[in-house]
Amino acid sequence: MGRLLAIDYGTKRVGLAVSDYMQVIATKLATVPTTDVFPYLKEYMSREEVDAIVVGDPKQMDNTPSQSAKAVHVFVDNLAKSFPDKDIYMIDERFTSKIAEQTIVQSGLKKKKRQEKGLVDSIAAVLILQDFMQMKK
Predict the structure, then answer these.
(1) Tens digits of residue pLDDT in 80-108
(2) How many angstroms separate the CA atoms of 85 and 119, rounded?
(3) Which of 56, 61, 124 is nearest to 89 (CA)?
(4) Closest listed residue to residue 11, CA positions, set 41, 34, 38, 36
(5) 18 contacts 29 by C-beta, under 8 angstroms
(6) How many C-beta neighbours within 10 Å does residue 51 have?
């Protein structure tokens, strides 16, 4: 069994998280600039077995696509072309960034570390992955 890879896509940064090989535990992997995400993913997947990719699907409160949904769907199309052998799933990502921010504040990290913008993105990816793994059970 391979890992699951979760992506919290943003126009500036992309948060990444992975599961363990048993697909039980989600951990943050990295936050990379959006312009570098495909080279990063290609390198990562060349050395790690990844079964599937999970991408956060941005939605409004009324379940309609958010403003960033179009960019995410273009990204997912490019992801499917770049990794045609990988299953790609989209999962509702509402509130993941807010929950990630709250988690960071409650974690006891020093203020300087809490202000790192990429930290929210990678923790949001962890939350997306946890939700996906919970749904699979």
Answers:
(1) 999 999 999 999 876 666 655 666 555 56
(2) 29
(3) 56
(4) 34
(5) yes
(6) 14
